Amino acid sequence: MLGEYLENVHQNSPLIHCITNYVTVNDVANMLLASGASPIMSSEPRDVEEITSICSGLYINIGTLTKRGVRGMNIAGGAAERLGHPMVLDPVGAGASTYRTKTAMDLMESLHFHVIKGNISEIKTLADGSGSTRGVDASAADVVTEDNLDVMVQFAKDFAKARECIVVITGKIDLAADAERCFVIRNGKKEMGKVTGTGCQLGALINAYICANPREMLGAAAAAVCAMGVAGEIAWSRMEDGDGNATYRNRIIDAVYNMTGAMLNKCARYEIR
Amino acid sequence: MLGEYLENVHQNSPLIHCITNYVTVNDVANMLLASGASPIMSSEPRDVEEITSICSGLYINIGTLTKRGVRGMNIAGGAAERLGHPMVLDPVGAGASTYRTKTAMDLMESLHFHVIKGNISEIKTLADGSGSTRGVDASAADVVTEDNLDVMVQFAKDFAKARECIVVITGKIDLAADAERCFVIRNGKKEMGKVTGTGCQLGALINAYICANPREMLGAAAAAVCAMGVAGEIAWSRMEDGDGNATYRNRIIDAVYNMTGAMLNKCARYEIR
Amino acid sequence: MLGEYLENVHQNSPLIHCITNYVTVNDVANMLLASGASPIMSSEPRDVEEITSICSGLYINIGTLTKRGVRGMNIAGGAAERLGHPMVLDPVGAGASTYRTKTAMDLMESLHFHVIKGNISEIKTLADGSGSTRGVDASAADVVTEDNLDVMVQFAKDFAKARECIVVITGKIDLAADAERCFVIRNGKKEMGKVTGTGCQLGALINAYICANPREMLGAAAAAVCAMGVAGEIAWSRMEDGDGNATYRNRIIDAVYNMTGAMLNKCARYEIR
Hints:
The structure is a homotrimer.
Chain A: H1 3-12, E1 15-19, H2 25-35, E2 38-41, H3 45-53, E3 57-61, H4 67-83, E4 87-90, H5 98-110, E5 115-119, H6 120-128, H7 149-163, E6 166-170, E7 174-177, E8 182-185, H8 198-212, H9 217-237, H10 245-258, H11 261-267, E9 270-272
GO biological process, one term (chains A, B, C): thiamine biosynthetic process
Binding site for ATP (chains A, B, C): 117, 170
EC number (chains A, B, C): 2.7.1.50
């Protein structure tokens, strides 16, 4: 059951090194703290190697790239790899610009990420090296639906096999797959798309979960996706008249803060294909 | 009526490229999402041209300048101009330092902004190339009041005429003017000044409004100013004992999230001079 | 009584130049506004000298260092020193990496800070030039407790004497000391550690307090520490079922916004040793 993965995060309190965009970095930090993990941010090339060495995992998010930041990602990634730290790549906006696509592809080629997480546009971009992402959101033509689910599950497995990683594809239906198994997850609320950074928060959360559950990373990644979705549902149920996306943002983090393994077990909605 | 401009934002969901300061960038993103628009942030010179090309508008805010960021602004601005994208300049702190003043002046000289938005100290600085801004807030000696309103309205129109743009001057009374007409707006609450970034949020909101209403940019800019002010009023009315500026921040964004055209029509308080 | 120091912040509204990390910068800005002070952020080397010259104090936080940012810190620090502005150093993560430790040491050597504030791991690192900080949080082995309080009070006084500054050491028990006197402060809630940036907010708050009370900086620094702790207590008492660290973050800032001198006098729990 997925709740155990959550409890392991509470018990192990992994420290996650985040190299992430400046738009949502504060929410990423508070989300990690809410989950029972801890954040440390550093992207400066001369700082990242040591910082990563005192952490358990490395979360790389390309939301607002700088040249120095990319250098930092590569140095930190190399160190994390040598240390065997679980690493997550969040290729925000891959497909939206050549620089983002190329950076994500380069990172994926030169480092081994345990989990690559993106929306379908981003993951498709990584799968074929080009894309037509609409900004940082998935193209409308490109969503996982009940109709194309079989195809998408196979796509996820193929991607995971080719890249020897776990892939998480977020959308109305979320997928978390390795080469052989795919969690099809139906938690979450569409209104989460009105809060900036829920995707980034999820990326960091996945990293905390796989760090605390290194032997069952697929289950752990799926648990993180379910936890985020359940948090979105709980948070929405607490919304009052006049509340909007800013309050929703806070309530989602609050819901992760209060989530127990038992709650996750009860509310997670997924099947394995 | 101004409500129509708001509804056009809901319907068109413009994607706004923001090159903005790292202090308030998260709130800017959530404010755009609250309004029905979408944000994408990128300031890296090698990324900005393509990013701007997939957007509808470009918001430039000089709140925390870096050399590379300024280069990014110029490249993005050039691309946006070629594409005919509505552009807003938010000269945060112009007058507070030579570097800010010079950067704002240079941007204004080399690019054509559809709207320039600032407090009176910032706009006066741009009008005469120097200033005495107190930090990022307007000098006390320099506010738009009922007493000097005629002079200020004329100042706004003259600035708009000289720069062939719309100017928005924020303060206790807000002005939105082109060369011929000036909206004098009396929405908002003074407590909004206790929330960091309400000005930045307004700048981005104006950008969303003019993108969704390209043929009536003055009315659209005025509608955005009214919407922000009305949001401040609604948010304040929802404050409870013990709430302060952090809660107020959230409630302002929430109020924009829930605002309808009818509400804006009902609550907007303005005259045209 | 400490409440007077708070009221002086309300009356003087000091403008604080902050060179701080991008993770918690927004909360730092809102915390300063909540306290009655005002923030301005700038780290660009060519901007910082003039910005600092229009401010009352300079807050330097090394949470996310960049090479240019460090240059900015030195230039701003030199200018602030010439102008006699109260300066606070927040050596976030000193001990966690050589670069952070070295930068903090260098800043401490080349500039005179009126207050140096950190957790015990960070301050010990500065005291002996090395450390074993766990990320940005204090090592478990290294906390101020009732058992080691005498030793820690003496350590704080010795550090303050050696560095000719006030030192603030945060933890379960907070210490604020100069060479002769040490405030031992027992306000606050351990749950504040689940909110990113409460330490950064405190650093900036101390700066506002010492700027508004330049002749009694030790008392003012202690008052800021008490105010932050009391805010954490008030905020916690307002938490409802389902609330978590995101809501707590907002309520802490709200509590500072609403705090009066009388409330601080009533709730501050400290002794002087």
